Structures are given as structure tokens and as C-alpha cells.
């Protein structure tokens, strides 16, 4: 076995609590103004550009980035607070979430200076939306089997092929995608893929919506036909994309969005049960609250370790593994516990509608952004089994 | 970096106390040796070394006869005790000393335990100051020389008392983990010393302190179960390869790592919350009960996987796995089971109301 697992008892510093109050007040104002309904978890179906701009105005996008790119040089723990409050309120974060969490940090690390100066401030203002081009029709979890080609031409590359399951591609302004620039080698099957910044809404890109079992059209097929990407849009090393996805994945894996996706059904169950629960309801709710508390402690702990410059790769994968399974099972546990809720419970209909949606959402939670199987492979490697 | 309120100096001394405990356990509580010692000859030297290091009375201030370690330092000893699945009443004596110290009663030498050890049992203070009542599932009562007793009078006021074990009736029992889990009956027993409990100190406080101790021990035992399961899977060959190379085994071990991680995070967080608490509010209550609940759940899932990985050999008396797995399962029942505390937590959450749930969870 390698090193022992670590989950230091990290607490959010006091300045986070002031920030939390500000975020809650802002969300309450937006709810009162009718910008979104916290009881309707249809965030993914809803693109609310004005909300995105307001969040940017508050300084809550690019929170940890350098000020010269429009960022705010705050801590990851402060960003954590904003993320969890938005998630729990079912705020419409779709337009900015991927750019803020993932795409911005990739650009910060690998984009040339003029591109950073051009794009990062616009992410911070909440103006632009990003998509991630990873999966293809015949390569999902097996990322390095990607076939979409980037062929060298004068001043850049010509892209041909298809990305699939691309969330938000239909509204995105940019995509960060991996394309094949060379064939894999015998020694390294991961060789030959390069990361690119792709400007969307251009000729040569066709976005076809794909319906999901939730009734939403949130992901897409994206077809590239002789689409030109200039040289300065290459992100990082040619043929070396496989080296570029290590520590930032820890942020992606361990955030509050990895266990709070269906949290709203628990709140609504407590409302439906009322303040004098029977033993069965009390025990069920108590266990679920103990579980979500533990998940959050684990997630905050990883955020704190990342802030301190550590690389808790295995711990982050564990958070996503058990967090996504928890949020996947939650609507089913709540359904069981709500079986004997009084017919007269005032929020009965809300709870039923939420359960319907959460149960339909549940299957994707252990697939998106790295399947359970892939995560367990990473954990097993960390344990010294592979 | 905001690792709670621990200054470096405290964090450092915590390591020294824990390292002292680790070293004693490694030298004198090696699972393999203990498992082959059918006469229990390992116990006396271990207890003597622990006593010489001041660990059983770690939580007792120096003016009450103890070594005056901090709560955090004591908790780190319990984590280590869990990792070694230590089968002497170290946690129990620490808890007893801590309870007596709440009322500034000096601790005697020797093994102690706390009475009651379940939230369902009550010991009452009679009008003449004697104590009566029955407590079930008291760990290590049979070998203890003294009990630290929490009792309440007819008005519901709590007292803390030091009781001579020989004055009580003890029906010995063996718990799931193979350690004593006894029934203690007090019939108008006059205590050696008794004092009122400090304001606000009640039975749930004692149960939750005991619960967090058990949570830390379970988390420690799970760490060891993970370690020995990983090691075994890298040694055992089946179908012409190490079983660690089978994806099904890898995924089981990854799940065990997840349960071990959850237990560790919940227990460590609760210990930190109690060590730094200025009052026992809803937030500290959540930390403590969540640790007991989640660690108990992890014990069930984790022990099952550890046994599955080991196959038949792990089911034998000769193998050390049961020392960890059965104790982790047994510790679930002490100081209130996960079902008991889940009901209490569920009631609290419902009384606070739906819109106060997230503020509670996100309070720190």
C-alpha cells in the first residue's frame, strides 16, 4: 500500500461565512425576482444569461484566478462556498459552471498570453459559456481511443470527426477538446492527442441536440467538417494531452456538485414529514443527514488540502465515487421514506415531481465526468493494486 | 492553512502522544502475537506500559491524578488503539477518567469503565446518596476495579460518582468482538465519591463522547482492514495471478477504501469539533452523532469486503482479520447504536424544519 488516506478536519475560515451570507442574500433576491424557482431542479434545461452576468458582477466567477485576467485571487474554500450555495438553491449555473470550474483553469495553465487576456476576463464577467469535447461515438471512458483528427495545414489545423455527449454545446461559445494529431505509439497508447481551444458557432461545426431520458436536451453531438483551428489555439504540448490532466482533475472530482445533485429531495422530505416524525422517518432522515454531513466533510477536506498545495488524487476520486453513488441512491431512499407521508402534506405534489425528476437524473450521476468503474481503477492504482 | 484551530505546537504534541501509543501497541499488542497467545499473557505487560506512559488517564488533569493531555491528544490515542484493535480497556478508562474529571473527582489507578454505556439505561441517585440501577453492555466491567457512574436523582439533576466495582453485581458477558460486555447492577451502592455534574452535563453528553471514541476506533480498525486486505490481495495467487489483478477484487478494495475514508473523515471531524467546542450546540451534536452513525455503517460494509477479499482464511480463528472486523462491528452497539442516534438526529432535523437543514449541514 502506498501512503495512508488523509482527511484532515478542515473548517471553512470565518471570511467564508460572510461570503456565504452574501451569496444567500443574492440568491434570495433572485428567487424573489422570479429569475429561478428553487423547487424546480431543471437548471440544466435553463440558460439564464442575465443570471450568469450578475454572478460575474458579484465577483464570484474566476474567484481564484489572477486579477490581471479578471479574477479575484480568493481561495478555493471561498469558491467552494459559492458553489455549494448555488447548487443547493438549484440556481441556473449551467452557462458559467464548466468555464469557471474547468475550462478557465486549463486556459490559465496552457493558453498563450493574448488568448488568456482575451477570454478569461469574459468568463469572469459571466459572458461566455464553455463545453468540453472529450467523448466520441466510439470512445467514452477510453479517452485515448479518440479518433477526431486535427490535420496540420497552413497556420493551424483542420478538424474532422465527431464529439458526442457534449453538454451545453448548443449554447457554448467555446469548447476545449482533444483531437488526434498523431497515431498512438506501440510504447504509449495515450500518445498522439492534443488539446485545442475551439471557437463554436462557426461554419464547419454542426451541433445536433440529443434528447435525454429526463426530457431535457442538454447534451449534443458535435460534427466537425474541415473546421480550421489556428496554431495559437493549441493548449499545451502537441501529442501530449495525456500529461495535462492530473491535479486539476482533483478539483473536478471532489466538489460539492459531486454529492448535492439530488439534495433537494431530502429537504422536501423533511418538509413533508413535518416536525413530529415517526420512528421510521426519523431514522431514515437521520441516516441520510449523517451521510451527507460526512460527504461534505470529506469534500471540504479535499478542497482544503488542494488549497494547501497538496495533490490528494486518490482522496478526490474517493469523494466522487461514494458521493455520486450517494446522490444516485438518495431519491430512491427518499421515495421509500415518503411512502407513508400524509396525503395532507402541503408539499406532497412538489416532492412527487422532484422525485420523478431526480430518479430520472440518477443514472447519469455515476457516468458523467468519469464513470464509477474508471474512478475505482484510479483508487485501486493509488492503493498499489495496479 | 485552516486546519481547524490547531496551532502547530498542539498538532506537534498530539503526534508525540499518538506516537507513544503507536509504539507501545506495535511492541506489545501485535495482532499476530496476541492471536496465538491463548492464555492472555500479553495483557499485563501492555497495560503496564500504557499506564507508565500515562495514557489510561490521559484526559485527567494533573491535579486529579492524570497526565493532563488535551482532548485532541487523547482522541489521537483512540485512533491508534482502533488501528491495533486493542483489547484492553484503554478507551473505557480514558472515558471514565474524563467523566470523573468533569466533577473534579480524582481518578484511582487501575482499569475503569463507564456506567451506563447505553442511552437506554439509567442509574438513579437515591435519597440517601446511594446509587441504584442496571446497565447492560458495559465494556470491560468484569475486569474493572472502579466505575465512573453518571446518575440522576428524582428531579433529573445529574451526579458523577466513583464506584468500587466489587460493590456491584456483575453478570459477565462476551460481546461480538470477543471482549467483555457485561451487565452491571447497582443496588443501593454507596459511592467512593460523588459530586454534582457541571451545569448542562447530561447522559447524551456522555454517550456522545463514548460514541465519538468508538467512531475513532472503528475508523482505525477499518484503516487496518484496508491495509491487510490490500497486502493479502497482492500476495494471494489464484487462476495463475495475484488476486489484486482482478478488476472485481480491485473494485471491492476501492469500495473498502471509500468506507474507510468516510469513517476516517467523519470520526476525525467529530473529534476535532468536540476538542474545540465552546458549547454543546446542534452543530457539535451533528458532528458527534454523524460520526457514530456513518462509522457504524462503514463497519458493516467495510468488514464484509475485507472478509470477501480474504476468502476462507479470513474466517478462521488463526487469521488476525477477525480481531479488527468483529470489534468494529461490536463497537457499533456501545453508547447508542447507529439506529438509536439516527432517530435522535432525525427528530432534531425535523424539529428545526426543512429550511434549517442546509444551514446546519453547512455550518462549518
Automatic annotation (TrEMBL), chain A:
GO CC list: plasma membrane
Residue span(s) of domain Acyl-CoA dehydrogenase/oxidase N-terminal: 16-127
Species for this entry: Bradyrhizobium jicamae
Signal peptide start and end residues: none
Domain of life from the UniProt record: Bacteria
Keywords associated with the record: FAD, Flavoprotein, Oxidoreductase
Protein's recorded name: Acyl-CoA dehydrogenase
Record flagged with keyword Hydrolase: no
UniProt lineage: Bacteria, Pseudomonadati, Pseudomonadota, Alphaproteobacteria, Hyphomicrobiales
MF annotations from Gene Ontology: acyl-CoA dehydrogenase activity; flavin adenine dinucleotide binding
Transmembrane residue ranges: none
UniProt keyword annotation of Signal present: no
Amino acid at each position: 500500500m502506498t501512503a495512508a488516506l488523509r482527511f484532515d478536519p478542515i473548517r471553512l475560515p470565518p471570511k467564508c461565512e460572510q461570503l456565504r451570507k452574501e451569496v444567500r442574500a443574492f440568491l434570495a433576491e433572485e428567487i424573489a425576482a422570479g429569475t429561478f424557482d428553487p423547487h424546480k431542479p431543471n437548471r440544466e434545461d435553463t440558460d439564464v444569461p442575465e443570471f450568469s452576468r450578475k454572478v460575474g458582477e458579484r465577483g464570484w466567477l474566476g474567484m481564484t484566478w489572477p486579477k490581471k485576467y479578471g479574477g479575484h485571487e480568493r481561495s478555493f474554500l471561498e469558491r467552494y462556498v459559492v458553489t455549494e450555495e448555488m447548487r443547493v438553491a438549484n440556481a441556473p449555473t449551467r452557462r458559467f459552471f464548466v468555464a469557471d470550474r474547468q475550462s478557465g483553469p486549463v486556459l490559465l495553465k496552457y493558453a498563450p498570453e493574448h488568448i488568456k487576456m482575451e477570454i478569461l476576463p469574459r468568463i469572469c464577467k459571466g459572458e461566455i459559456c464553455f463545453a468540453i469535447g472529450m467523448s466520441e461515438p466510439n470512445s467514452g471512458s477510453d479517452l485515448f481511443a479518440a479518433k477526431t483528427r486535427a490535420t496540420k495545414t497552413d497556420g493551424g489545423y483542420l478538424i474532422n470527426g465527431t464529439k458526442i455527449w457534449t453538454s451545453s454545446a448548443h449554447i457554448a461559445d467555446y469548447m476545449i477538446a482533444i483531437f488526434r494529431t498523431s497515431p498512438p505509439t506501440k510504447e504509449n497508447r495515450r500518445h498522439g492527442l492534443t488539446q485545442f481551444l475551439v471557437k463554436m458557432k462557426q461554419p464547419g461545426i454542426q451541433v445536433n441536440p440529443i434528447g435525454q431520458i429526463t426530457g431535457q436536451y442538454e447534451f449534443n453531438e458535435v460534427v466537425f467538417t474541415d473546421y480550421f483551428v489556428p496554431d495559437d489555439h493549441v493548449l499545451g504540448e502537441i501529442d501530449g494531452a495525456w500529461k495535462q490532466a492530473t491535479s486539476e482533475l482533483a478539483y473536478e472530482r471532489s466538489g460539492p456538485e459531486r454529492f448535492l445533485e439530488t439534495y433537494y429531495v431530502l429537504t422536501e422530505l423533511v418538509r413533508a414529514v413535518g416536525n413530529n416524525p415517526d420512528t421510521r422517518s426519523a431514522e431514515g432522515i437521520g441516516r441520510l443527514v449523517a451521510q451527507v454531513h460526512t460527504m461534505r466533510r470529506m469534500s471540504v477536506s479535499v478542497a482544503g488540502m488542494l488549497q494547501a498545495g497538496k495533490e490528494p488524487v486518490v482522496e478526490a476520486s474517493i469523494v466522487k465515487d461514494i458521493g455520486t453513488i450517494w446522490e444516485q441512491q438518495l431519491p430512491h431512499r427518499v421515495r421509500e421514506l415518503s411512502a407513508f407521508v400524509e396525503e395532507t402534506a402541503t408539499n406532497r405534489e412538489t416532492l412527487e415531481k422532484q422525485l420523478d425528476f431526480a430518479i430520472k437524473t440518477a443514472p447519469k450521476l455515476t457516468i458523467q465526468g468519469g464513470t464509477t468503474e474508471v474512478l475505482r481503477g484510479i483508487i485501486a492504482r493509488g492503493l498499489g493494486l495496479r | 492553512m485552516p486546519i481547524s484551530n490547531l496551532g502547530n505546537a498542539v498538532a506537534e504534541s498530539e503526534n508525540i502522544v499518538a506516537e507513544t501509543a503507536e509504539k507501545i501497541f506495535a511492541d506489545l499488542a501485535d495482532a499476530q502475537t496476541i492471536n496465538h497467545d491463548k492464555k492472555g499473557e500479553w495483557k499485563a505487560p501492555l497495560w503496564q506500559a500504557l499506564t507508565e506512559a500515562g495514557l489510561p488517564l490521559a484526559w485527567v488533569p494533573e491535579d486529579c491524578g492524570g497526565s493532563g493531555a488535551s482532548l485532541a491528544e487523547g482522541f489521537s490515542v483512540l485512533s491508534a488503539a482502533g488501528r491495533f484493535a486493542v483489547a484492553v480497556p484503554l478507551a473505557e478508562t480514558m472515558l471514565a477518567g474524563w467523566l470523573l474529571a468533569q466533577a473534579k473527582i480524582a481518578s484511582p489507578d487501575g482499569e475503569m469503565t463507564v456506567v451506563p454505556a447505553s442511552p437506554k439505561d439509567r442509574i438513579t441517585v437515591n435519597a440517601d446518596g446511594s446509587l441504584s440501577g442496571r446497565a447492560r453492555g458495559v465494556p470491560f466491567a468484569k475486569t474493572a476495579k472502579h466505575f465512573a457512574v453518571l446518575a440522576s436523582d428524582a428531579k433529573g439533576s445529574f451526579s458523577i460518582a466513583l464506584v468500587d466495582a466489587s460493590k456491584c453485581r456483575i453478570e459477565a458477558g462476551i460481546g461480538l468482538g470477543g471482549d467483555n460486555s457485561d451487565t452491571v447492577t447497582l443496588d443501593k451502592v454507596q459511592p467512593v465519591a460523588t459530586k454534582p455534574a457541571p451545569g448542562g452535563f447530561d447522559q447524551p453528553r456522555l454517550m456522545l463522547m463514548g460514541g465519538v471514541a468508538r467512531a475513532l476506533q472503528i475508523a482505525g480498525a477499518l484503516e487496518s482492514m484496508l491495509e491487510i486486505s490490500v497486502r493479502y490481495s497482492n500476495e494471494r495467487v489464484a487462476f495463475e495471478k495475484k488476486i489484486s489483478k482482478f478488476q472485481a477484487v480491485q473494485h471491492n478494495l476501492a469500495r473498502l477504501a471509500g468506507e474507510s475514508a468516510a469513517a476516517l473523515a467523519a470520526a476525525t471531524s467529530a473529534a476535532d469539533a468536540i476538542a474545540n467546542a465552546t458549547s454543546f450546540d446542534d452543530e457539535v451534536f451533528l458532528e458527534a452523532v454523524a460520526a457514530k452513525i456513518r462509522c457504524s455503517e462503514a463497519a458493516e460494509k467495510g468488514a464484509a469486503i475485507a472478509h470477501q477479499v480474504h476468502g476462507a482464511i479470513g474466517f478462521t480463528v488463526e487469521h488476525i482479520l477477525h480481531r479488527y472486523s468483529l470489534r468494529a462491528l461490536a463497537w457499533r452497539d456501545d453508547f447508542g447504536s447507529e439506529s438509536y442516534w439516527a432517530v435522535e438526529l432525525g427528530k432534531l432535523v425535523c424539529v428545526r424544519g426543512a429550511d434549517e437543514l442546509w444551514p446546519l449541514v453547512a455550518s462549518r
